[in-house]
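lol ok so funny story. i was supposed to be doing the assay writeup but got distracted and ended up predicting the structure for this chain instead. priorities right. anyway since i did it might as well share w the group, maybe its usefull for someone
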Amino acid sequence: MMHARAFLGTMLLLLFPGAAARANDESPARIDEVVVTPGRKASPTLALPFGVGVVPGESLSGPLAPRSLTEAAAELSGVLPQKTGHGQGSPFLRGLTGFRTLLLVDGIRLNNSVFRDGPNQYFATIDHLSLGSLEMVGGPASVLYGSDALGGVLNALPRLPLLDREADRLGARLYQRVSTAEGGGTARLEAEGSLDGAFAFLLGAARKSFHDLRDGKGRLPYTGYDEWDMDARILHDTGAGLRFTFGFARVSQDGVPRTHRTMHAVPFDGTTVGSDRAHEYDQMRGLGYVRMETLEPMGFAKEMRVTASCQRQRELRFRVRKDRRSDRQGFTVDTLGLDATVVSRSAIGTLTYGLDWYHDFVDSFARSYSATGELTSRGVQGPVADDAAYDLAGVFVQDEIDLGADVTATVGLRGTLARARAGRVQDAETGGRTHLSDQWSSPALSARLSWLAAEETSLWAGVSQGFRAPNLSDLTRLDVARTNEIEVPNTDLDPEHALAFEAGARTRAGPVQGEVVVFHTLLRDFIQRRPTDRTIDGDVMVEKSNCGDGALRGIEASGEVDLGAGFTAYAGGAYFYGKIDSYASADSRKNRDYIDRLPPLMGRAGLRCEPVAGLLLDVRARFAGHAGRLSPGDRADTERIPPHGTPSWGVLDLRISCEALSGVTLSLALENVLNETYRIHGSGLNEPGRNLSLTLEARF
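and the output, tada:
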């Protein structure tokens, strides 16, 4: 074994002169991950009483990074990376998605009051190449994060520049990825530096251009799009125990098609083809923020962090119908945010408390045109109400209490107020104008216990409440929904509620690390689409109501084993089951049926090898079972979901990355080696067929 490994190391060093051999056969000491999202403060994962997942920066922006953040999130056990289109992504957490999962960017809410039901495209408006990690908290997290955190929280944490106190420093990074399945590529250029021992900066810009996708059988027309990304982060250490962070990020997508709604769609296992000639979106999202945080205890505060943010999201949809009539509709949402978190030690434990407030200004529009391009009408509103505003404010406190015998109790409480106002809402019956003004309040509680059963093993259990206040999309949406459906406003809705019971185990013992979580979540007053007996332009009108009571349960597991000699085996998977009250048609009774787009059994397993420093070999298999547990909505969504459910699939990937020269890393990935034609459940198009990608990363 030793002779073989020595020979292998020698050959690899000859082939890749930038790689350095390991010093010895022993595996490096494993350091427990530190995450910030579960408790709003830096904490090692081992003792946390939450289901937690992390995608490290190397998997997001390193040489083996995938095409988008949606694909990267698939590394998290239990996350189903649904994609309505190639440039659109909506991760499912514990069987829920859309506005029932909370998306954060550096702790700042990406969710706003226009987020819609079901899979939406907004997760894809985060540039994964700018990130340092992606953190997940599974299950209701409304105590610390408020509305929307029912399925869980995903927090995209950007890479921060390194502050060098010894000397000024300036560096650059070039990243280039090309692949055969998309016929396009991604390029990113960064500059990073440190000045005067008090300032550090990181500036980045990326260009992404994708041609039509190719699946296992050939080209999928009308699937390509273009994207421009920019970001900047500046750190300033005052030298007095305070640090300021100035952040900016902008993502702009042009012409992202929703292919399944058009006549360009390619049928998959019995799906129907849409009738539109064109159906595409332009997306722009810009975020600017300033953050003040303490670097050492100050008075009553062990830690303190205050963030003020300003965000703009703009969406434009362009649609051409079969008869060449067309329409343009869209919205602009400007969001002001303020978030303050304080950590203090007291006689009753470690307190984490604070407040958050977000205010949306919403403008929307809709215009219709004849087949010859003449303007025929202007809508009272666009996809959501025009001249609208939405406030979401909350206060929270969470206490960690040491009970002795390595047992810790974590209890929390939040109070939230949501308020909606809209000056222009279209009445679906008359086409006239109405208005909206309403507000809701809701408490949320959680209680959890964790026990450090051994030096590197912990057990935990908990119960937590989650809620989601109706947003402007719930109350005022007037837009296409699923196949041959159009959603109409309903201004009389109440909040949704969830109550989750969870238990888990986590270990970092010796060469083994892993986690397993089981949960049972009760759902109450969920807002469901209900078909009516009316139509608009041939599409069935669906209206929302608080008719959904039900439950979700499941198990998530992940782990890896250090086999020695540079080899690591890893695996992960999840299984969910859930039913909820719903209506199959306008004249049917309420019936308990499967939850929309219930994920199938899914998982991954692989073998990773790092025989010498600077070289990584990875072989992995990804799979999903048959998704045949269909809801009434799934059965009606014939353009995305086959009549008998989405078929099972399994693919094999081979990846290699090496430091060919000092500061220059090359990677080669052959994904879907067997050229499988497959689709992720609920998606609007197939996944790539056999795909060869080449990535170059150079640091200067």
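The chain has one domain: 2-699. Confidence is low (pLDDT under 50) at residues 1-30.
back to the writeup now i swear
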